[in-house]
C-alpha cells in the first residue's frame, strides 16, 4: 500500500477502493490539533486515535449524510431509553462486541499472572445499585412458580494465598424464566432474582436461585434494531451475573454460564469464556432444603489483592 494513498468504499472482492474525490489530506490532523494545551495526555491519546479512526471509517465506506444521521438518531434513541434500571447505550455496545473487547483488554494482564483471579465478563445493562442485602441461605426467588430451583454456594478466596476472604460482598442477579429481569416486568416483585450476600468467617456464601435459562436481549430499542439490520439473533446463553468485592481486593464483575446451554458458542453479546462455563449437579448434602432445590452449583471465586494492601501496608 502506498504511503498517504486515500481509499474510499469497498469493492465486490472486499478490498478497499482508491478514492478520487480529493479529500483534504490535512483535515483529520487539523481536527486533532485543535485540542488545547490543558488536554490531559491520556485524553489526547484516546481522542486523537478516536478521531483518526472515525474519519478513516467515514472515508472507507463513503459514509453519506443520511447514514451518519441514522447513526446519530440511534445513539439519541439509546440515550432516551436509558435510566437507572436499563442502559440501552451499554446494550448497543454489547451487540457489536465492544464491551466484551474492552473487558478482555482491561484484564489481559491479570489472566497472564501465575495466580489469576476469577475471569471477568461484561456488566450488562440490568445491574441495580440499590439491590437489597440478604442473609446467606435465603432465596432470591420471589413469586416465580416455574423454573428449576438451584442452590448456589462456594467460597471467596485470595488468589495469591488461597485463603478464604471473610466479609466479601457477592452481588448476584439473573433473569426470570420468561426471559425478563425484574425491572423489565411489571408482574415481578421489585428486586426479584437479585441480592447482595456477605461471606462468613470461612469465606463462604450460599443462596437459592433459579437454574438460569436462555433469553433474548430486549429488541424494542436501537440494539434490537441493529441486530435485525445485521440479520443476527438476540439470544443470550443461560447465565447468572456476579459482582464480588472486598476493600482489600480488586473487584470482579463476571457471569457464569450453564454448560448445557445451546447458545454458548453463539452469544449475542460475545461474553462467554471457557473458564466461566459451569455444571449444575443434582443436589446433595443440604439438609436445610426448604426451597425445594433439585440442583446445586458449587462455585469458588478468587480475588486479586489490591497492591500496597498486603500485610497491612
Helices and strands, with pairings:
Layout: E1 7-10, E2 16-18, H1 27-33, H2 41-60, H3 65-81, H4 88-95, H5 98-106, H6 108-111, E3 149-158, E4 169-173, E5 194-198, E6 204-210, E7 215-216, H7 222-229, E8 235-236, E9 239-246, E10 249-258, E11 277-278, E12 281-282, E13 295-298, E14 301-303
Parallel strand pairs: 3-13, 3-14, 10-11
Antiparallel strand pairs: 1-2, 3-6, 4-5, 4-9, 7-8, 9-10, 12-13
Helix pairs in contact: 1-2, 4-7
Report on this structure:
The structure is a single chain. The protein has 313 residues and is an alpha+beta fold. Helices cover 23% and strands 21% of the residues. The protein has helices at 27-33, 41-60, 65-81, 88-95, 98-106, 108-111, 222-229, and strands at residues 7-10, 16-18, 149-158, 169-173, 194-198, 204-210, 215-216, 235-236, 239-246, 249-258, 277-278, 281-282, 295-298, 301-303. The strands form four sheets. Strands 3, 6, 12, 13 and 14 form a five-stranded mixed beta sheet that branches. A five-stranded mixed beta sheet has the order 5-4-9-10-11, with no helix packed on it. A hairpin with a 2-residue loop joins strand 9 (239-246) and strand 10. Helix 1 packs antiparallel against helix 2. It is globular. Residues 1-8 have low confidence and may be disordered.
Amino acid at each position: 500500500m502506498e504511503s498517504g494513498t486515500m481509499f474510499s468504499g469497498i469493492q465486490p472482492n472486499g478490498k478497499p477502493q482508491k478514492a478520487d474525490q480529493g479529500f483534504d489530506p490535512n483535515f483529520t490532523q487539523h481536527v486533532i490539533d485543535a485540542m488545547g494545551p490543558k488536554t490531559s495526555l491520556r485524553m489526547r491519546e484516546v481522542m486523537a486515535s478516536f478521531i483518526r479512526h472515525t474519519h478513516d471509517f467515514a472515508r472507507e465506506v463513503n459514509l453519506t449524510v443520511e447514514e451518519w444521521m441514522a447513526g446519530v438518531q440511534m445513539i439519541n434513541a439509546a440515550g432516551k431509553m436509558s435510566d437507572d434500571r436499563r442502559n440501552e447505550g451499554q446494550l448497543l455496545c454489547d451487540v457489536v462486541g465492544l464491551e466484551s473487547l474492552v473487558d478482555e483488554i482491561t484484564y489481559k494482564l491479570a489472566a497472564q499472572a501465575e495466580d489469576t483471579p476469577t475471569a471477568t465478563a461484561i456488566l450488562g445493562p440490568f445491574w441495580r445499585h440499590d439491590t437489597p442485602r440478604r442473609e446467606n441461605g435465603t432465596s432470591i426467588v420471589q413469586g416465580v412458580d416455574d423454573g428449576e430451583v438451584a442452590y448456589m454456594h462456594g467460597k471467596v478466596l485470595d488468589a495469591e494465598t488461597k485463603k478464604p476472604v471473610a466479609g466479601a460482598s457477592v452481588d448476584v442477579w439473573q433473569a426470570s424464566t420468561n426471559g425478563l429481569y425484574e425491572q423489565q416486568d411489571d408482574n415481578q416483585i421489585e428486586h426479584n432474582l437479585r441480592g447482595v450476600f456477605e461471606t462468613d468467617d470461612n469465606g463462604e456464601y450460599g443462596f437459592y436461585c433459579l437454574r438460569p435459562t436462555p433469553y433474548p436481549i430486549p429488541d424494542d430499542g436501537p440494539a434490537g434494531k441493529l441486530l435485525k439490520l445485521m440479520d443476527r439473533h438476540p439470544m443470550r446463553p443461560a447465565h447468572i451475573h456476579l459482582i464480588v468485592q472486598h476493600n482489600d481486593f480488586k473487584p470482579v464483575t463476571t457471569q457464569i454460564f450453564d454448560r448445557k446451554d445451546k447458545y454458548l458458542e453463539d452469544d449475542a453479546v460475545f461474553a462467554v469464556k471457557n473458564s466461566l462455563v459451569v455444571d449444575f449437579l443434582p443436589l446433595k448434602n443440604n439438609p436445610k432444603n426448604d426451597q425445594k432445590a433439585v440442583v446445586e452449583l458449587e462455585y469458588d471465586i478468587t480475588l486479586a489483592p489490591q497492591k500496597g494492601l498486603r500485610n497491612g501496608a
